[in-house]
Fold these 2 entries.
Entry 1:
Amino acid sequence: MACNVNENLDSALESIELENQLARISKTILVMSGKGGVGKSTTAANLAVMMSLSGYTVGLLDIDFHGPSIPKLLGMENKKADMKGEKLIPLVMGDTLKVMSLGLLLQNQDDAVIWRGPMKMGAIQQLLRDVDWGDLDYLIVDCPPGTGDEPLSIVQILKKPTGALIVTQPQDLSVADVKRSVKFCEKLEIPVLGVIENMSGFICPHCNEHIDIFKSGGGKNMAESFKIPFLGKIPLDPEIVTASDEGKPFVYFGKKETADCFQKIIDNMLEVVEMNNKDEQKSENNTTDSEKSVTKFAIPLANNELCMHFGHCEQFAIIDYDENEKKIVNSDLQTPPPHEPGVLPKWLGELGVNTILAGGMGSRAQQLFASNGISVVTGAPVGKAEDLVKAYVGGNMETGINACDH
Ligand code: ADP
């Protein structure tokens, strides 16, 4: 039993660490494709390099566990990530690009990884939590092709990624494949930042004329039919293959024309990010003043009065106090899930609670609540929940000592 409690506490603290790390990452972009071989990893690697060259601090996380190609694409094939203390140190390119991939951790890059879904979820959590990413403007995630465990896990972990980029090729078949990625994003409510049509047309090395090899326009048509942005095309360029094989990002070492195409795509993507951001802010601002002025209190109860032993209370009073109307606008009783570390912060967080009035609470538990956006007032006296809320908002609640500081 004690062992169980410790394990639960460890996992609660690990999730705080993960939350803390994620809070330092401003935006996250998933790079996806319907099938393999369309140039998804090449796009992810070059996107990360170009954005870091533009001055952003960028992380590039490769979660394509069965075929991690980022190390090869960036000339890191023979390098390994070091540990410093408890943290893994990502490999750094230039000053502002940090790279992590399972390929940088395996003894041998060709070692096969045979993992089921939950193991992949655990590995992705570790690659976010235990890697010293520091502060990032953008984290770019190279997902494996398709809509399997890895993209699902990363979305669950990140909760709200900034968006997904979908890489496709001009042939109809891959356009059909990519539709699945779009549907996946729709289901999980991830904004699709746009579609990139790769290997689209060919720039003749002799006359620089653009020649369409496959039927052109599939990506654009598909984007229109799904009402998602079309970001642009990257031509089929043999120099990309050579550069990639040598571990050199083509946006830096390749042909200027191709790099320019890519830059345009990034500009378009950043515009979409900016637009989505503005829309989100607008809808946040549209939350009515009354919604904003309501504080949701939770008070642990036993025998209908505040219970001094927080973790062992029978019920919680959940009380909405409206600052504008200066009154309690809703009052409710909720039965908590069975007590174990980490459960109550999550549960009360999901109920939208902002403030807890408690007789006492240990500092670790308070930390857990803080990471769920809930502040804790300790030392509240025994009394009826509504009376305590009224006294607290009126500045009349007499707080004593933290009665249960363990
Ligand atoms: P994926 O991640 O979708 O499996 P990769 O990024 O590994 O695909 O690319 C597959 C192959 O296609 C690589 O050899 C890469 O160098 C090549 N490639 C990618 N994009 C282009 C392009 N625009 N022109 C020519 N070759 C490309």
Entry 2:
Amino acid sequence: MESMSVPTAGPLVDTFGRVASDLRVSVTDRCNLRCTYCMPAEGLPWMAKPEMLDDDEMVRLIRLFVALGIDQVRFTGGEPLLRRSLIDVVRRVGELPNRPRMALTTNGIGLDRLAQPLADAGLDRINVSLDTVSSQRFIELTRRDRFADVERGLKAAADAGLTPVKVNAVAMPGEDPSDLLAWCLDRGYELRFIEQMPLDAQHSWDRSTMMSRQDLLDALGARFRLSPVEQRGSAPAERFYVNGGPATVGVIASVTAPFCGACDRVRLTADGQVRNCLFARDENDLRGPMRAGASDEELADLIRLNMWGKAPGHGIGTPNFQQPDRPMSAIGG
Ligand code: SAM
Ligand code: SF4
């Protein structure tokens, strides 16, 4: 890097030369599940409506990010399907110049109704989060009896052509991951496991009880033949052919084999803060300046400033690691 001052033009870079191309937008912090690794049984104090970006503000900021080189936008939350205007936001982002690819991460509840309208609005891809295929275990993990809704949502996503439908699972101890893989293979869903991270509001994460990449591979390998897929690029998932392919399974080892050096992500929270990392301790407020009349250039400068401060890695496991103040559900997973 020639100069160490914040760039005033060009793509969104940090001081380590990484370039952001993938924007995660949290459209709400509210949720209708209470996954134990994410939030407490009683839920969280939700953001007040006036604190949240309205549709015009959200679309304006996404337009700025796209002008700064973002080519993929993923809507998340909280549970993004709880934002009533989601379909409108997707449609409007799809109409932007240099239209980004658009993806959604959802728990799948309500997707039976919304998959087709989302596809019609221009959504390109979908990830549905599901950690178990036992409806009893689903209740224990999410504290809600909604397994059948998720099952219907997944089917509706496939019927709407949002294929390949991807399933994201947090690897949970006590769960045989090969049951979920068998279930997804039967239905043509592409499964990716992720290691549990210290992002829960209750701060109860414990590395010693976490199911690691190696635990996962051992358990899956006992039932399926796995062989590595080459060409990982900047994608966080390490992929394996199952029984020779073409079906694959992915493992995202965020904790035991972090991929921060190749990170291309930046995040926008539902209350208009830009964050350069899930684990960032700082964020930059875009909502306040925007409501005070900031120009596009001024907002773009704030986004660049935030990216410039991106740390080399999340530091989980290092002595100075501190969990971020916001839980995953308020950052946007
Ligand atoms: N509610 C939506 C959902 O569950 O897909 C979107 C938001 S959720 C925070 C996004 C993803 O983060 C989900 O796949 C969820 O399983 C994952 N997640 C939540 N807490 C996590 C944690 N502590 N470690 C790893 N992944 C987590
Ligand atoms: Fe809700 Fe998603 Fe968190 Fe589960 S992981 S409580 S579905 S935000």
